[in-house]
Design goal:
With 356 residues, the protein is an alpha+beta fold. It contains eight helices and five strands; from the N terminus they run H-E-E-E-E-E-H-H-H-H-H-H-H. Strand 4 and strand 5 form a beta hairpin.
């Protein structure tokens, strides 16, 4: 009973702390108008009428930053009922304006991201306690590390080299923060690096032997050469595979370590059979995870294309092609990571009946 009460108080304390922290951060982000150079305004009043096939909004705005802070201005906004290419604005919305304050160019959405992020972190800390706090720290550090990679890319560094180095950095950050710097971490790192090298080599061979139409690859910088496009696509594949590979490597490493703890004199062949049994149980679920992740990326293209009378076969051939390739490569990476992780775990965790 004492333990139950103690746990209950611990949950309540973590919930209260995270609620206060989350509210403070969300309020700060909602009111961070001064950090933006673009004009930001708040929608004070909206009136609307239909003109031909468009809805026309007359919007009264209050400027929230720049030298004209506090000034009231009026703009017009046109949108289709479908809102596929246009936005409909409502009272209370925070929006960005062009430099002349004559047009709305988009919603300010950073506070939506902050709210979602803090919900995630709060749930991790409340229910995960120390492990959840480390997972949250891992997420924050990885985001900062990713930002540094983007800055390096903008300064002209090669995207593929940055991705390879970044993948190594991401792996070390995740494994060291979540599992600590220990033997299991080193085994998981070795397995992840080995699988990543194999996947990179296999994907490179397939991509450079193929003639891919990159016109529909999202976010590829223009103008580009075929070699630059190949490297950009390879970078996407490596990052897309990394999470699943780390998951498989960690699972097999931990399972192998537990088996050795219970039976230090187990033969290496038996250890490999035990690790393979664990791997067989997680293969289907891991492949399903990467499948649904890529399906989620394809759905917006399908919805917009179908609404504009574009056949689904055309979407599959062009827009969805890259998501399909990323899924197949991630599935291949998972399948490769199983024997590699089993082999690395068996060799590094046990040698001649002794633990290293």
């Amino acid at each position: 009973m004492y333990l139950s009460d103690k746990l209950q108080k611990s949950y309540l304390l973590r919930t209260a702390v995270m609620l206060i922290v989350s509210l403070a951060i969300c309020i700060i982000v909602y009111n961070n108008f001064s950090i933006y150079q673009k004009p930001i305004a708040k929608v004070e009043r909206v009136s609307e009428e239909k003109v031909k096939t468009k809805q026309v909004q007359s919007i009264e705005l209050k400027l929230m930053n720049t030298g004209d802070k506090g000034r009231i201005i009026s703009v017009q906004n046109k949108y289709d009922v479908s809102c596929v290419y246009d936005e409909k604005y409502s009272k209370g919305d925070i929006v960005f304006l062009n430099g002349k304050h004559t047009e709305i160019i988009g919603l300010k959405r950073d506070y939506f991201i902050a709210i979602t992020f803090m919900i995630l972190v709060s749930l991790l800390v409340i229910f995960g306690n120390k492990k959840g706090l480390l997972a949250s720290l891992c997420l924050i550090v990885n985001v900062m590390f990713f930002y540094l990679i983007i800055l390096a890319y903008m300064k002209g560094m090669n995207i593929l080299l940055l991705t390879v180095l970044g993948s190594l950095g991401f792996t070390i950050i995740v494994l060291s923060l979540i599992n600590g710097i220990n033997r299991n971490m080193l085994v998981s790192l070795a397995a992840t690096v080995a699988v990543s090298v194999i996947v990179l080599g296999l994907a490179s061979i397939l991509i450079y032997m193929s003639k891919i139409d990159y016109d529909f690859l999202d976010f590829i910088p223009e103008p580009y050469t075929r070699n630059q496009a190949n490297q950009f696509f390879l970078a996407q594949i490596i990052i897309g595979c990394l999470g699943a590979v780390i998951d498989v490597a960690v699972t097999i490493t931990v399972a192998s370590s537990e088996v050795i703890d219970k039976n230090p004199h187990i033969h290496i062949n038996e250890l490999m059979k035990s690790a393979k049994a664990v791997a067989d149980d997680i293969t289907g679920t891991m492949i399903s995870v990467v499948l649904f992740t890529n399906i989620a990326a394809i759905i917006p293209n399908f919805v917009i294309s179908v609404a504009n009378d574009i056949e689904y076969r055309t979407v599959l051939r062009f827009d969805a092609y890259f998501d399909i390739v990323r899924f197949f490569m991630a599935a291949v990476a998972i399948l490769i990571s199983i024997p590699v992780s089993v082999l690395v775990s068996s060799l590094m965790l046990k040698r001649g009946g002794k633990r290293i």
